[in-house]
């Protein structure tokens, strides 16, 4: 058995082997009984009715009623009728015989497919070439998309570069940093906001430190679960954490030790000894190598608690400062004078519709809810991962509306696409800027961190603790054979240990002030995911924001990653962009997210075929090297079902139908490349026949989920087709329709106003401009300006803050279309209901795909398997299969 399965529960393995043996026993017993029935029927070959009676009795005795959805109960009645009624022809009796023989063979096929499944599973557990799946692309939907082949000697290069960075301090100017940050809190509003920030942070630090015994059973459980959800510890140490979760006595002892550490936190040190903390390159879930420390389990739990309490408290404080103190700039509301004029010309009905419904309010709410400090968890039990974490949101957080990293990335992509459509149509021009930081957390300056912490009001006792955490004694391993490891211990002087909760705390705190600087200096929102940076909007503002980001980066000792930096400046056909100085201020390079590139001419998001097929060629090699058919399927599903489906961008109205068709065309070319003249289904069936000698495998066996006895191979064409007819055909045309409708709204409002009597106008004037005595209070100039209806330019001047129609369109473009309902039989509906009731065998997000599959293969399933499942679920070793499915599949390419 391969090393990847060595840690499986011995009981589960025994159960699996028992199921396999029981299935084989049933298969052999059924074959003997079926042959006996067929032999008995053959003896009465000259008596059709007797032959049918024997076959019918055999079917009833051998086939469990639950295994077939074919109703045979009436055959006995019609057979008895035929003894007396000559109108029942011989041909009908022959049909009965064929139907019964088919039903006997159906159960044979079901048991044979069950045996095949067991052989496939055994092959996966014991491949001829024992190799673990090497690198995860189980959830590698990181929107970067730029991978390159890794050779073994690159690991040494990575360690050497890491050493060159982290052991040499990067000194920054604390005074200069403090002065720069002070400027962000200018004026009375800023001073009060800063006072509030420092007061709340100081109180939080004191509260955390004074809680001398915070560890109890509830606390230790969320700490253990949080560590199991990230990549901080190796698998063997995670297995120990799993044991702790099951052992109440062990948890009690751990709580006692950790409470002792907390009570004496000022004297905390890394539990490293003379050997220091071993350092190793370790692959992350997205395929990247990261240099990780192999630290003590108790230290990991303790630091997770400290980090999560600081994370949650800091997020609350920083969000409150941003939301309530008035230091953040936004254009949600129009001025009172503008609002009064719109009330007068448009009437109260229109005015009420415009209140807090505009695009600006929608932008601000989305930014606050989904992008602002999105990496800081809102609750301590939400877990914490590294900056390259691509895992789904923790299950404990799902009920709180927290989006997974994957969902946030897709939302960011839709936001950029929607803003490009809107800004280009309404204003004739738009800029998009993309960047990130080079080795952000690995190379973060400690002096920068301490400067920011002190500026925020963190006291010196906590700074001393954070300094000990950051200055970990690292052991990079011997330079040459025979050299003692202790000679390689060095104190870290730069960067933050990966995958700790404190990593996010430090990273988000430093970049929070860049978010604020961009907002104040350019009146923009910086859309940030980890250290991935995006700007979209007016070119002048984007240029100012980019200059602000460059200044901030230089001040903080951060290095912008020029290879992932770029901008696109788009203008409408009738707009001439004259200010070349603005274009010169924007960074050069492409804007690309995943496999999508923003085309600088059309403004469309184009799939980068060259990058796609670099991955497809690598996928072909990995599939060819798969040691078993189930590992082949697992690799295929992880890539086709997850990686490509998200790096192409999830279909949405802002991309239009052309994007869906481009996805389908790309999948078509991928399949032609991987299976020349064939397809994935035919390839796997041929592979099964070559390895196991089993032919006539139903297509449904390839695609149905494991719970129905299939291999669960993902068909990449189904999801795009489920939304193809529902997605917006042309977002640009939809924007033009808005402009046409807007003209109509303006003209109707103008006509309605001009048809008002003078008395009606005076009443409206008094209602809007009355003073405290109820008298009309208005200047002569204002009164004169109200005599002429507002111009179209005035009507549209504030539409991003006031237009409910534009807000509705913005939301429509941001939407992912609901998947298409297809006509399904009652048999398919019942099958899906059973699946949904069976411990999460299928989810709501895959229901439409399951309907498509089952309806498509319904006829084949009934003919070849007698029902909607291929093998009885209780006969399959699905427990061990579920565990094996969690193994991370390897990209041989990394970012």
From TrEMBL:
It comes from the Eukaryota. This is Reverse transcriptase domain-containing protein. It comes from Hyaloscypha variabilis (strain UAMH 11265 / GT02V1 / F). PANTHER family: REVERSE TRANSCRIPTASE DOMAIN-CONTAINING PROTEIN (PTHR37015).
């Amino acid at each position: 058995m391969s090393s990847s399965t060595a840690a499986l529960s011995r009981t589960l393995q025994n159960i699996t082997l028992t199921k396999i043996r029981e299935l084989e026993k049933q298969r052999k017993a059924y074959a003997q009984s079926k042959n006996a029935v067929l032999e008995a029927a053959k003896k009465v070959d000259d008596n059709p009715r007797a032959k049918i009676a024997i076959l019918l009795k055999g079917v009833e005795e051998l086939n469990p009623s639950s295994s077939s959805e074919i109703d045979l109960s009436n055959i006995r009645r019609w057979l008895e009728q035929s003894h007396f009624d000559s109108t029942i022809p011989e041909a009908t009796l022959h049909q009965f015989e064929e139907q019964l023989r088919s039903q006997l063979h159906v159960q044979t096929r079901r048991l044979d497919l069950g045996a095949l499944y067991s052989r496939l599973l055994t092959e996966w557990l014991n491949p001829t070439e024992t190799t673990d799946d090497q690198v995860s692309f189980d959830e590698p939907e990181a929107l970067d998309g730029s991978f390159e082949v890794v050779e073994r000697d690159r690991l040494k290069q990575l360690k050497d570069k890491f050493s060159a960075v982290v052991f040499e301090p990067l000194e920054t100017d604390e005074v200069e940093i403090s002065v720069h940050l002070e400027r962000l809190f200018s004026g009375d509003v800023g001073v009060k906001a800063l006072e509030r920030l420092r007061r709340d942070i100081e109180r939080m630090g004191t509260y955390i430190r004074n809680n001398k015994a915070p560890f109890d059973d509830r606390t230790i459980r969320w700490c253990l679960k949080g560590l199991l959800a990230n990549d901080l510890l190796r698998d063997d140490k995670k297995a120990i954490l799993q044991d702790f979760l099951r052992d109440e006595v062990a948890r009690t002892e751990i709580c006692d030790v950790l409470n002792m550490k907390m009570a004496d936190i000022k004297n905390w040190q890394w539990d490293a000894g003379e050997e220091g903390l071993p350092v190793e390159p370790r692959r992350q879930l997205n395929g990247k190598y990261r240099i990780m420390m192999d630290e003590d389990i108790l230290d990991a739990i303790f630091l997770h608690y400290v980090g999560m309490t600081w994370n949650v408290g800091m997020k609350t404080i920083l969000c409150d400062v941003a939301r309530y103190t008035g230091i953040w700039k936004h254009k949600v509301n129009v001025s009172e004078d503008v609002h009064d004029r719109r009330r007068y010309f448009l009437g109260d009905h229109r005015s009420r519709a415009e209140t807090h419904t505009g695009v600006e309010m929608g932008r601000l709410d989305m930014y606050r809810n989904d992008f602002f400090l999105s990496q800081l968890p809102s609750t301590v039990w939400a877990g914490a991962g590294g900056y390259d974490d691509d895992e789904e949101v923790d299950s404990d957080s799902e009920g709180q509306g927290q989006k997974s990293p994957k969902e946030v990335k897709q939302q960011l992509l839709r936001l950029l696409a929607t803003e490009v459509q809107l800004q280009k149509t309404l204003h004739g021009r738009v800029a998009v800027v993309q960047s990130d930081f080079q080795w952000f957390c690995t190379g973060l300056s400690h002096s920068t961190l301490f400067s920011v912490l002190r500026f925020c009001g963190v006291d010196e006792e906590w700074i001393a603790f954070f300094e000990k955490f950051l200055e970990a004694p690292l052991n990079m391993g011997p330079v040459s054979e025979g050299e003692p490891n202790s000679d390689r211990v060095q104190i870290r002087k730069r960067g933050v240990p990966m995958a700790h909760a404190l990593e996010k705390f430090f990273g988000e705190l430093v970049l929070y002030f860049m978010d604020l600087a961009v907002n104040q200096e350019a009146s923009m929102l910086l859309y940030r995911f980890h250290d991935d940076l995006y700007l979209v909007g007016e070119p002048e503002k984007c240029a100012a924001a980019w200059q602000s980001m460059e200044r901030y980066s230089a001040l903080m000792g951060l290095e912008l990653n020029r290879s992932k930096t770029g901008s696109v400046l788009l203008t409408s056909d009738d707009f001439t962009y004259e200010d070349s100085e603005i274009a010169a201020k924007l960074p050069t390079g492409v804007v690309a997210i995943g496999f999508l590139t923003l085309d600088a001419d059309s403004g469309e998001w184009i799939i980068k075929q060259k990058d796609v097929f670099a991955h497809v060629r690598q996928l072909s090699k990995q599939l060819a090297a798969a040691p078993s058919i189930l590992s082949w399927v697992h690799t295929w599903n992880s890539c086709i079902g997850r990686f490509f489906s998200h790096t192409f961008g999830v279909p949405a109205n802002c991309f239009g139908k052309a994007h869906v068709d481009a996805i389908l065309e790309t999948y078509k070319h991928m399949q032609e490349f991987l299976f020349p003249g064939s397809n994935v289904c035919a390839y796997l069936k041929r592979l099964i026949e070559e390895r196991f000698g089993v032919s006539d495998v139903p297509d449904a066996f390839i695609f149905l989920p494991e719970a129905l006895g299939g291999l669960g191979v993902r068909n990449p064409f189904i999801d795009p087709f489920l939304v193809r007819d529902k997605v917006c055909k042309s977002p640009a045309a939809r924007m033009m329709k808005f402009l046409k409708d807007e003209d109509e709204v303006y003209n109707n409002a103008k006509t309605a106003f001009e048809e008002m009597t003078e008395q009606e106008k005076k009443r409206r004037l008094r209602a809007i401009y009355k003073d405290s005595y109820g008298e009309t209070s208005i200047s002569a100039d204002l009164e004169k300006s109200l005599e002429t209806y507002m111009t179209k330019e005035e009507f549209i001047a504030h539409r991003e803050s006031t237009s409910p129609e534009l807000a509705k369109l913005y939301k429509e473009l941001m939407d992912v279309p609901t998947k298409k309902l297809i006509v399904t039989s009652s048999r398919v509906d019942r099958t899906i209901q059973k699946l949904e009731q069976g411990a999460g065998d299928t989810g709501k997000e895959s229901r439409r795909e399951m309907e498509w599959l089952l309806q498509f293969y319904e006829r084949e399933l009934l003919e070849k398997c007698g029902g909607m499942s291929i093998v009885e679920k209780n006969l399959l070793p699905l427990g061990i299969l579920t565990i094996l499915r969690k193994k991370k599949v390897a990209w041989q390419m990394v970012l």
